[in-house]
Amino acid sequence: MSETSPADSAVIARSRQEPEVFGEIFRRHAAEIKRFVIRRLGLDVAEDVVAETFLAAFHQRGRYDLARHNALPWLYGIATNLIGRHKRTEARQLNLLVRTGVDPVTEPFTPRSDERLSAQAVQQRLAAALVALPAGHRDVLLLVTWGGLSYAEAAEALGIRVGTVRSRINRARTKIREELGGTDPTALVIEEVRHG
Amino acid sequence: MDDLAQLNNFRSEVPVQEDLRAEAERLMAGMSAPARPNFRRLGLRAALAGGLAAAVGVAVFLVQNQPAPTPPPPLIRTVAAVEVLTRAAEHAGSRPELHPRPGQFLVYQSETMNSAEGEGQIWLSRARRTFWQPVEGSSVKAFLQNEILAPLPYPGHMLPPLAQWEQEQVGKPSRPERAADFDDRPEFMRNDYAYVSKLPTDTEGMRRHLYTQVPFDGLQDYEAWGRVGGLLQESYLPAAQRAALFRAAATIPGVVTVKEAQDAAGRTGIAAAMVSPMGVREEYIFDRKTYDYLGRRGVVVDAKLANAPVGSVVSSSAQLKVSVADGAPIVE
């Protein structure tokens, strides 16, 4: 976002009177939200989830808290809720990766010749760890890592307390480290991941 | 590389998506869908002095002349899910029918409760209303008498200052007034008796009617469900069309049965329902014995989407009486 463009909250406020202005929120954030949805569910259902995310956001814009200048956490929250309806799709693809070593999610974007076997083993373990996590824990973990949300933003996005975010992240990371095998002592220091 | 870095690396080859045309089109279609806020529209009609005109006026960028898509194939549904609607269809012909003639009015007496919003405040707006609908023609010739009832807090919220005005109107019934200054609903959204008497009497035909010009944006079944409500609330269909409506409604994917529901007047019945994209289960309630339509109710099933606790009621209505009158009240 450049210095001169209005904050998301100002755009949303205006869209309450002029609905078509909401298109600007889509233009600003749809690409990032779509990449996130694809990483979780794959290309096939991403279009549905992204379209529904922004439609739901449009319908809820009257309730958006205008004190929040950046709409991304809100959009990530809606998208995560909608992703929850496709838990089976998500689990099936992760399980497929665990069993076969081929990730149906990244396949469309990966050149056939690019076989990175060492990385593949790590991916299989990560997939096994992710699929074994409770859905709520996976949601929080991926919002903070892939989505780049702070703990506070993730809490806001999912309507849960920051303490809940922290404990879910801790437990999820413990399971992932167990799955990955090695215990890296430095990884026990929990830091908030903050981007942008 | 620590676990977070490895996780960040996982599926990082998925590129940022530049081609978002399909999603953009669906958003635009959804934003401009003619009757998307169907329940909200009923609410606006109840809440605003300007009546239907104000609600219809919002749809300034109405998308017209979209190619009519074929409705999705009906799903095979469990007996329980369609039971209410099927029974309602079977009972549609068993009661004395109203036979309004051209020039007469159908008179609906009802109570409504809908969410009202303004300046970031939200509350539940309630009214008792009498609606005189001409047997033939648009809502411009319809009349409405609205009596504001005490507003209630939106579940989980305080009663905000904006609701004060409604509080002051309690006990001061308004005079009947013209229900709308203009009515530019498309033909297929009409619900006057002359029009609904010509609707199909077979399930498939009625189903096509419910999906007329519905954009296929993932919300199409909910849209069709909203249209069922438009033909139940302040609308009266001949028995044959009513039966077809119930049968067609039973084919809409996502319809569920609610064993006990209460309308705005406290009458209990059995309901058919669908969960809205706003996390609210929108129920149509029928009398347990006669399967007469009693009213509707909106119950929160997703606290976050609905911004209210699960199980709370965020909208309801009760259709108390439907009758035929020769004339409408005089309006100066």
From TrEMBL, chain A:
Domain RNA polymerase sigma factor 70 region 4 type positions: 124-176
Residues annotated as domain RNA polymerase sigma-70 region: 25-92
GO molecular function: DNA binding; sigma factor activity
Entry superkingdom: Bacteria
Record keywords, A-Z: Sigma factor, Transcription, Transcription regulation
Biological process terms in GO annotation: DNA-templated transcription initiation
Listed InterPro entries: RNA_pol_sigma-70-like (IPR039425), RNA_pol_sigma-70_dom (IPR014284), RNA_pol_sigma70_r2 (IPR007627), RNA_pol_sigma70_r4_t2 (IPR013249), RNA_pol_sigma_r2 (IPR013325), RNA_pol_sigma_r3/r4-like (IPR013324), WH-like_DNA-bd_sf (IPR036388)
Family named by the database record: Belongs to the sigma-70 factor family. ECF subfamily.
Record PANTHER family: RNA POLYMERASE ECF-TYPE SIGMA FACTO, RNA POLYMERASE SIGMA FACTOR RFAY-RELATED
Name recorded for this polypeptide: RNA polymerase sigma-70 factor (ECF subfamily)
Automatic annotation (TrEMBL), chain B:
InterPro entries: CU044_5270-like
Keyword terms: Membrane, Transmembrane, Transmembrane helix
Record's keyword annotation contains Transmembrane helix: yes
Segments passing through the bilayer: 42-63
Protein name listed in UniProt: CU044_5270 family protein
Native species: Nonomuraea muscovyensis
